[in-house]
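Annotated sample (chain length 263).
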Amino acid sequence: MGILNVTPDSFSDGGLHQAYDSALAHARELVATGADIVDVGGESTRPGAERVPVDVEQERVLPVVRQLVAEGVPVSIDTMNASTAERAVELGAVIVNDVSGGLADPDMARVVAATGTGFVVMHWRGHSDRMYRDAVYAHAVDEVRREVEMRVAELIVLGVRQEQVVIDPGLGFAKQGAQNWEILAGYERFASIGLPVLVAASRKRFLEGVGSAEGAPPKDRDLATAAISLLAAERGAWGVRVHDPAPTRAVLDVWEAWRAARS
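Output written by the structure step:
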């Protein structure tokens, strides 16, 4: 899943792809370098980010979604707003990726249930302007797993079908440095829920200094991201969400060639 931030303020590439032509060019580059899905978002969820009006979000993302679908690109819409999700799916988006797991907008479950689209349900404890205040766990893996499982159960009661759901343990969201590594190390506990798992570690702050120098720009975390992608693939992850598909595609191609030679 290649990340396309059509925003001025995303933590890694804010402003680089906000213009329509730039966004399309980058989406095509994501596909050319190995992305199977382009995840289009118009609202930053970096730590401390404030909410964006829905009409502004839609002005940013919907023209891009329309054109990418016309070009045959599988599109995911990264949004917490049910109306944005509904309009994007009407335009042909095949996945709704909601970092709030449907909690930010009570109408999201209805939209997802009615459209039948795929739904990435992330672990979430609150909006970006206060997420770190909620990063308190006695045992991060057990608590996050339980909260994800409960949220999926609530969505099913609201009409979302289990086969629509992909879960995301929410690396970096209401989680401080070491807690993210605990979540990754506990991957099998999330897989044991029995649903596909998305791993979204790309360039996040907890990777700083791991495979790159302390203080280096987020882009220098792409090799660490690729390593996590490989470890996630080995454990059976449904997908990985990355800013730069090229290094992840390279390590996955090597892994697949190795596996094929052993079979």
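Annotation: The longest strand covers residues 118-122.
Annotation: Strands lie at 2-5, 38-41, 75-78, 95-98, 118-122, 165-168, 198-199, 239-240.
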